[in-house]
Amino acid sequence: MKRIAFATIAAASLAAGPAHALDVTRSRDIPAPAEAVWALVGDFCAIQFWHPQVERCILSADDDDDGIRAQIRGLVVNGGLGTIVEVETARDETGRSYSYGLIQGPLPVRAYNATLAVRPNGSGSTVIWSATFDAEGMSDAEAVADIAGVFEAGLAGIAREASR
């Protein structure tokens, strides 16, 4: 089975989570135009430049026989915590957003699907990062706190890089 087929099946199974999924949304106002912030964060592997917990990103992209393109990223996490593998499930360049699902990794979640979006806000922008998931290996409250911490660290990194 081609890697793209596996990624497509994995993304579909991730999207079919139970109705009681947990939600986390965090946002941050950035004093830079939405176009500039999207240029910073819009590439699926750009997370390595702004998220302090990501040591490096390895991007893989395949086309299946129908020409459908799927991007898969491997995120090497700082501190030797492992590698997170995610698949991009949607992209809207005009709307400045992308969505992705977790395939595997050391996060305390399953059925994880997230969206990162950049919206104009006056002369600046607002970055919104949201996810739905189920806790795995810890309580719901602990999993929500863990993902919220990942988002907060990432949003702080975006603000830091956008101010340079």
Strand content: 35-45%
Rg of Cα set: 16 Å
Summed over residues and divided by their number, the pLDDT gives a mean of: 88
Largest sheet entry: 7 strands, antiparallel
Structural write-up:
With 164 residues, the protein is α+β, with helices and mostly antiparallel strands. It contains four helices and seven strands. It has helices at residues 3-15, 34-41, 47-50, 140-162, and strands spanning 22-30, 54-63, 69-77, 82-92, 97-104, 109-121, 124-135. It is globular, with a radius of gyration of 16 Å.
List the helices and strands and how they pair.
Layout: H1 3-15, E1 22-30, H2 34-41, H3 47-50, E2 54-63, E3 69-77, E4 82-92, E5 97-104, E6 109-121, E7 124-135, H4 140-162
Antiparallel strand pairs: 1-7, 2-3, 3-4, 4-5, 5-6, 6-7
TL;DR?
By secondary structure, the chain is of the alpha+beta class.
Task: Write out key terms for the chains shown.
single chain, 164 residues, alpha+beta, seven-stranded antiparallel beta sheet, disordered N terminus
